[in-house]
Design brief:
The chain is mainly beta. 4% of the residues lie in helices and 43% in strands. The strands form 23 sheets. Strands 18, 20, 21, 24, 25, 26, 27, 28, 31 and 32 form a ten-stranded mixed beta sheet that branches. Strands 71-70-69-68-65-64-63-60-76 form a nine-stranded mixed beta sheet, with no helix packed on it.
């Protein structure tokens, strides 16, 4: 038996007087019902009293091993593997008639029962043949006569072996021998027909086929005809046990009387069920039952076909019926019987019968023992039928009908046609297989929908817990899972979170042509779903909480990624990177609430040891003293080598440095941040400097993680600096917080932002026209495809002149927008990622086998320093630094902003960078690279403003359509409104120049300029 079948036997036999799946006792067995067959397994019983059944004092033939020897004896009970014998029937055609020989083989001991020639003892034989002193053949008659066909319950005689008492097979409690005929009848027995127990274990046996959440029913009509109504085809069902009657009383309409209602004890097959029943196999209350949709006999649907007798209940089809729509009346009085299209609850109560537990214990008959049906088509009132009806097939006019039948005409198996071969997720070379896991289902919507969220981990009561969150950085190892192990036999994959190493074991199921997977955890697994009390939508406090749901039955997309930076999201500063300050704000767009500073001497104003406190308008500068060596989280991973799953010698690595935070002051040189168990927890001291890991969060804030041990990131209790509830200046800023308390980190409380006080020197922070001349020759330009290109030119011209406008000018290093004619320099990484997977390389640059995103110029209009209007997928959108769905604002404004800094002190060369990456050039295209040494150097010269485009008349407003934009000439200071043909306004602004380019969607637009007649334009 395989593991699943053994589990089934364990479940069903416990309710049939069986001690366990392996124990065989008299109540289990009965005489084989069908004719004995060659190659089938049986239990061999000595029917001493000849009554044709196994009684308590009668013996079974047993074979056990003692060392290398095989011991044969009779036993009244035992382990089935020692008591089960394969019957061999050898039939020969001879001139004098047929001859029959029989063998008995025990698979557990790998031996045939045989005898020495003198019958003195039973011996084990490797072959079932007639061999001297190993006579393994038996006949149905004495005297070595082989012409008699054996009848079950008769004697078996050893062929060519005998004792003085005879050669009939005899059993005793100590031995197996040969002797007289009387009292030695041999009975071949098998397990009695059984039913799946109405227990949690019984239902779970079926549900485990799909990871604890259900199964499909596999069956065949035994012919090639088409099915008329196969509603079971590829349908996932889940078995629920109602382990005891669920009863209640209901007031009879129009009276004060009470009527008994019930859900009878039994097994029910649900097509749909609520998330609250995920991971469960038992329904114990009416509310849960009514929330399901069950397979049931349709009470009024009968095909009235040949071989079906409606009056007997046969020929009725099946349907899926909501539990809330069922008839629950217990009695069969006429005023309570179901009628018409009503479906009585018993019509969904299935008895799962195992007709041959011994040889086919994974094959079932499905039987309905108590149904109420419209047995007479002319009468609405139903008839109660308790004779038992099966899910069967009737073939009529070369068509198969799935209907109720009087006998079992179909055999069913619990199958799984959608399980995914998880080895397909593994790399074929020695490299970790890493995925982000995104939910596309709403299984938990009753508590909180997980749709579009990503899987991560958070702290729990006893250990890490799985969580689904909306705000996600897919480059963060907190949202990345590496495949640590694969169980090929059971198709279970073990994912480990790359940062915490928290494991998740699941089987995955995929429907035909689907991209997503249904998740079935190997053990019941909770999923905590993020919810946000948003003040903008009527919430009170902007607090994130997590609602408990279930991972089972959720649908996910597995997005494979390649990790290029093992330090991703962990601060890894270069030498000489400069000083930092810490700001406290609710988010990166909110104004600074406080700055972090040192306690000051009340007399001199000098910084001194003491609490780190809040200030409104000043900040202490800090030096981050980097540890010489980095620490790491190393997780084992597996990969495929041919058909084998291999465990790699290397490890998937998440690396991080620790830092000491040192106050920078001309007068004080030895004050470091120390972390204490008191409140406030962060102080400046001359000793006990704390080591911290600095991790960038989703909202660009940072977590200062207390690195007390090298295993801190895999510890649920890891600490970080949590901003206190600050109300005024000079209050302690940081307390001890839980690093994996995602609810706190995602809520609208004050966060810590680290601001780089970089020593780099920026281009002057004023709006100006400039040219970018490459040190190696040529100029940056915008080509006809709006790509940023290197133009071969000797001197700057209008075509090589750009407008740079400042943003974040209040920071130590400002950023700039670089624009030309209403087109803004843009890091097209999102466009590259989107189109590359679809086979479109339009936004890619291939450099030495690596793919980078191009820099392009994207049409847009700067509405303010922190808001840009542009076109995405043909629609006009607003872009800011952060998504704001309620306001229909997309994030990603940082992809339009660049820092322009001196290459080094004293140099006239400039570098252009964005988020720690620098503009590089290959094959005349520009892209962002990570290495400063590969950055392209520019000399920057101020230029005069370009003249108006040729053909534009200053005194007349002119509208010119372009690709994704409209250019308005001669309308400086006037209001311009652009709308689509439906009248929807896509732009409404006052233009500030005589040659303004405004983003617009593709198609026909209407342009209305203040004081002028509206005109139509076609935007490409």
């Amino acid at each position: 038996m395989n593991k699943r079948i053994s589990t089934l036997m364990s479940g069903l036999l416990l309710t049939s007087a069986f001690a366990s799946a392996a124990s065989v006792v008299p109540a289990n067995l009965e005489k084989a019902k069908a004719a004995l067959a060659n190659g089938k397994s049986y239990f061999v019983v000595q029917d001493a009293n000849g009554n044709g059944q196994w009684d308590a004092n009668e013996l079974l033939l047993s074979a056990t091993k003692s060392g290398s020897a095989v011991v044969f004896k009779g036993a009244t009970s035992g382990d089935e593997k020692n008591l089960m014998w394969t019957l061999g029937i050898q039939e020969y055609a001879n001139p004098g008639g047929k001859t029959y020989y029989y063998t008995l083989y025990n698979a557990e001991t790998e031996s045939y029962l045989s005898f020495k020639d003198d019958g003195s003892s039973a011996v084990a034989s490797e072959k079932g043949e007639d061999k001297g002193d190993a006579r393994a053949l038996f006949t149905a008659a004495g005297g070595y006569v082989a012409t008699t066909l054996y009848t079950n319950g008769g004697n078996l005689f050893a062929y060519h072996a005998s004792t003085s008492a005879g050669n009939a097979l005899t059993l005793s409690s100590g031995t197996v021998g040969l002797g007289a005929v009387n009292g030695n009848n041999i009975l071949f027995c098998e397990y009695k027909e059984s039913t799946l127990p109405i227990t949690e274990v019984g239902a779970k046996t079926l549900n485990d086929v799909k990871g604890g959440e259900g199964f499909e029913l596999g069956f065949s009509a035994g012919n090639t005809f088409e099915w008329v109504n196969n509603i079971l085809k590829e349908k996932k069902l889940k078995a629920f046990a109602v382990t005891s009657d669920i009863t209640w009383s209901q007031t009879t309409t129009g009276t004060s009387g009470q009527t008994d209602m019930w859900i009878p004890r039994g097994i029910y097959f649900a097509k749909d069920y609520p998330a609250s029943l995920n991971g469960k196999n038992v329904i114990s209350n009416k509310a849960d039952f009514e929330a399901c949709v069950f397979l049931a006999v349709a009470a009024d649907k009968n095909y009235d076909i040949h071989q079906a007798k409606r009056a007997d209940g046969t020929g009725f089809e099946f349907a899926y019926v909501s539990g809330s729509d069922m008839n629950f009346y217990k009695d069969i009085d006429e005023d309570q019987l179901s009628q018409g299209s009503e479906v009585y609850v018993g019509n969904a109560c299935v008895s799962v019968v195992i007709p041959d537990p011994m040889r086919a214990n994974d094959e079932y008959d499905l039987k309905f023992n108590d149904v109420r049906l419209q047995a007479d088509a002319s009468k609405e009132l139903h008839k109660s039928i308790t004779t038992g009806l099966y899910v069967g097939v009737i073939t009529d006019q070369n068509e198969n009908y799935l209907v109720t039948t009087a006998t079992a005409t179909l055999k069913f198996k619990a199958i799984n046609s959608t399980i995914y071969d998880v080895t397909e997720l593994l790399n074929a070379e020695d490299a970790p297989s890493i995925y982000t896991i995104q939910f596309v289902s709403e299984v938990n919507k009753a508590v909180a929908s997980e749709k579009d969220m990503y899987l991560t981990v958070k702290d729990g009561t006893r250990s890490f817990e799985l969580a689904a969150v909306e705000e996600t950085n897919t480059e963060d190892p907190m949202f990345q899972f590496v495949i640590k192990n694969v169980d090929k036999k059971n198709n279970i994959v073990t994912f480990a979170n790359r940062q915490t190493q928290h494991e998740l074991k699941v089987s995955l199921h995929q429907e035909k042509d689907a991209q997503d997977f249904t998740v079935y955890p190997a053990v019941a697994t909770d999923l905590y779903v993020e919810t946000f009390d948003d003040p903008a939508t009527g919430g009170k406090n902007g607090v994130v909480t997590f609602k408990k749901g279930s991972l089972a039955n959720t649908k996910v997309l597995l997005n494979k990624i390649v990790v290029e930076d093992k330090f991703a999201t962990f601060v890894n500063r270069e030498e000489g990177a400069g000083l930092v300050t810490f700001e406290l704000a609710k988010n990166s767009d909110a104004p600074v609430a406080f700055y972090v500073g040192a306690t000051k001497n009340a007399t001199t104003g000098a910084i001194q040891a003491g609490n780190l406190v809040s200030y409104l308008d000043e900040a202490t500068q800090f030096e981050l003293v980097k540890n010489d060596k980095y620490d790491y989280v190393a997780t084992p991973y597996v990969y495929m080598r041919g058909n084998r799953v291999m465990t790699a010698v290397e490890r998937d690595t998440v690396a991080y440095y620790t830092y000491e935070v040192k106050a920078f002051d001309a007068e004080v040189t030895n004050l470091y941040m120390a972390i204490t168990a008191t409140t406030p927890a962060a102080k400046l001291a001359t000793s006990n400097a704390a080591k911290v890991i600095i991790k960038k969060n989703i909202d660009n804030s940072v977590s200062l993680i207390n690195a007390t041990t090298t295993a801190v990131l895999t510890n649920k209790a890891a600490q970080c600096m949590a901003v206190a509830d600050l109300r005024a200046e000079k209050q302690g800023v940081w307390n001890i917080g839980a690093n994996y308390d995602l609810a706190f980190k995602l809520s609208e409380s004050l966060k810590t932002f680290m601001v780089e006080e970089s020593p780099a020197i920026s281009l002057e922070s004023i709006p100006q026209h400039v040219s970018f001349e490459a040190v190696r020759g040529g100029f940056m330009t915008m080509d006809e495809n709006n790509d940023a290109r290197l133009a071969i030119a000797g001197v700057a011209s209008e075509d090589l002149t750009f407008w740079v406008d400042t943003v974040h000018s209040d920071r130590n290093i400002p950023s700039f927008y670089i624009a030309k004619g209403g087109n803004f320099l843009y890091n097209a990484k999102d466009s590259s990622a989107y189109y590359t997977v679809r086979g479109n390389k339009r936004f890619d640059v291939e450099v030495a086998g690596n793919t980078y995103a191009k820099l392009i110029f994207k049409a847009g209009e700067l509405l303010s320093s922190d808001t840009l209007q542009t076109v995405v997928d043909g629609r006009s959108v607003l872009v800011a630094e952060k998504d704001n769905a309620p306001k229909k604002i997309k994030g990603g404004l940082g992809d339009f902003q660049f820092q322009i800094i001196k290459a080094e002190d004293g140099s006239d060369d400039y570098l252009i960078r964005q988020n720690g990456q620098y503009i590089c050039q290959y094959n005349n295209y520009f892209y962002m690279g990570a290495k400063k040494v590969e950055a392209y150097r520019f000399t920057i010269e101020k230029q005069s403003a370009p003249t108006a485009n040729e053909g534009v008349e200053v005194a007349t407003v002119k509208v010119v359509s372009g690709e994704g934009n409209v250019t308005i000439a001669g309308a400086a200071g006037k209001k311009v409104v652009i709308s689509n043909i439906l009248g929807q306004v896509v732009a409404n602004t006052v233009v500030s120049s005589d040659n303004a380019t405004i983003a617009a969607p593709q198609g026909i637009v209407v342009v209305a300029v203040e004081g002028e007649e509206a005109v139509k334009a076609i935007v490409k």
